[in-house]
Amino acid sequence: MRDLLSYLFKRFIWMILTLLAVYTVSFVLMRAVPGNPFSGERNVPPAIERQLKARYNLDAPPIQQYFDYLGGIVTDFDLGWCMGLEDYSVNQVLAEGFPVSATLAIFALVFAIILGVTAGVISAVYRRSPADVALMAAAVLGIAIPNFVLASLAILLFVFTIQIFPAGGWGTLQQIALPAFCLGLPVAAYIARLSRAGMLETLSKDHVRTAFAKGLPKRTVILRHVLPGAMLPVVSYLGPAVARVLTGSLVLEKIFALPGLGSHFINAATQRDYTLAMGMVLTYTVLLFVMNTLVDISYAIIDPRVKLQ
Amino acid sequence: MPESLSQPDAAPSRHGEPLLQVNDLQVSFKTDDSRVRAVRGVSFDIYPGETVGLVGESGSGKSVTNLALMGLVPSPPGRVDGGSVMYDGKDLLKLSPLQMQSIRGRRIAMIFQDPMTALNPLMTVGQQLTEMTRLHLGLSRRQANEKAAEMLELVGISGASRRLRDYPHQFSGGMRQRVMIAMALSCEPDLLIADEPTTALDVTIQAQILDLLRELQERRGTSIILITHDLGVVAETCHRVLVMYAGKVVEKSDAGPLFASPQHPYTQGLLQSLPRFDQVQTTLRAIPGQPPDLGNLPEGCSFRSRCPLAIDRCAREEPPLASVGDRREAACWVAEENANG
């Protein structure tokens, strides 16, 4: 318990430092890109542009802007007003979009884990069988097909040909199913391959032979003695998987017209919406950090030899 | 043999029925281009309460023989091609997987060479000890825990009930092998197969483990097959010895006579290559040459090319195991000739 608390404390300090670095790099990068939030096809009259810049504190020297904005974030968690969306604060946008993206990500991940692990275990246990060959071929396809292609195919098939899912929108389970499927499938494919490799490696371990020598039924040996060890690489992958699902959802939310953070992320980047982009980047950083910490903790729970450092 | 080594007590009387009869056991492994015959017609009996040493170098088929007894030959690529293993009136090789499960661990138990890897690192020692007794003996969780603690005490692990909650990595190598032994004996099997149980341990721990095995055998009358390539271990613990070479038993004998007058030239070579403490030696003696390729065995005796005694007949016919004295057999034309005048 003490180990866990000191570990969490250390991770927290690291997260703060990482956030500071991410903030700095993003700040510099965004301002290094040509253009600004108000440059468009039509030139804004200089007087109005001056007023706009003054409203968003863009007329101050960059160093000043850097510290002013950082100060707001640190003291009030205030990410400022959106520069692209009228009358929306970044906090509001996040509060509305985040639950949608998070729900989608959770559905996709749970689906990916269940499908991927099942396929991997079956493949490994019935190694070289037709089932193994078929599943692994499917996994290679799943990894290779980009999710926007998958989404288009899925819409063609499940929305137009067999009309069982709506084409888009948000709120019902039916509306979540298709995007979660498209988002989760490539991850499931990767997890299937990881689980298969993990299972095969663990199956060849001496202690599994011991378990068989004890007279345990095959099912017990697989579930109790092989599966936990085989899941370690899958658990390690869950951190990157979250990142993958989050970035994947940027595209899918657009295709399925979901009110998540994805479209905001894209718009923020294309419109040089400095504040919104910063809000996104920082949110995702925190999310990844939390996920990686959870992964480390579950790793230590599964494998007692691992000490949290 | 080195006289200083302690001898096991005289062999238990071998009247009565053997516990286990292995007859003409054949096991092969498929490789990319051929089928390697790892065990080529091995036969032996195990009597209640005796310790039989199975000696041979790596690849001689000693471990595979015992995996076959347990029905644990990895398949594919391995396959039991023939023979029988009679136990309790049944041929173990013909039992269904389900029937075999009730033999494994319950009637025939096994301990392995490397205690560092033979225990599941992700489960507590208690979990690993209790799952067997709960399965085979139908004990409740509580009874199984009591039994597990009792077994740990028996193999000399102190504070047993507390240590049940520990993981294998919290035990030393010797302690883990004790845990393995406790686990193997917890269902009171008739036969314990110990596959090089001391090879991975240092010498003092080795002696402790062998003493433990011997003591437990005296107390419980368990038969033991001890697989090893260490002749010192054999001299210390075994009543009888089977020497294996290239997938066959080449010599069968009581332990005392084997060390006093080995009959098969391979056994002689093995004994000569032991370092002796009663003589000044500058170099270790070794048997010249390499063991044969089991996928491509030469005609005649497989030891011929390394044998100092080889005669013409050895190149043509493979010698069968034949009697070369009182309760002694060797698979060698020369030894047979000498024995029978």
UniProtKB/TrEMBL annotation, chain A:
Keywords: Cell membrane, Membrane, Transmembrane, Transmembrane helix, Transport. GO terms for cellular component: plasma membrane. It is found in: Cell membrane. InterPro entries: BPD_transp_1_N, MetI-like, MetI-like_sf. It is a multi-pass membrane protein. Its main location: membrane. Pfam families: BPD_transp_1 (PF00528), BPD_transp_1_N (PF19300). The chain crosses the membrane at residues 12-33, 104-126, 133-160, 172-192, 281-302. It comes from the Bacteria. GO terms for biological process: transmembrane transport. SUPFAM superfamilies: MetI-like. Residues 98-299 form the ABC transmembrane type-1 domain. Belongs to the binding-protein-dependent transport system permease family. PANTHER family: INNER MEMBRANE ABC TRANSPORTER, OLIGOPEPTIDE TRANSPORT SYSTEM PERMEASE PROTEIN OPPB. This is ABC transporter permease.
UniProtKB/TrEMBL annotation, chain B:
It is found in: Cell inner membrane. One of its GO terms (biological process) is peptide transport. This is ABC transporter ATP-binding protein. It is a peripheral membrane protein. NCBIfam families: oligo_HPY. It comes from the Bacteria. One of its GO terms (molecular function) is ATP hydrolysis activity. Its main location: membrane. It comes from Roseiconus nitratireducens. One of its GO terms (cellular component) is plasma membrane. It holds the Pfam family ABC_tran.
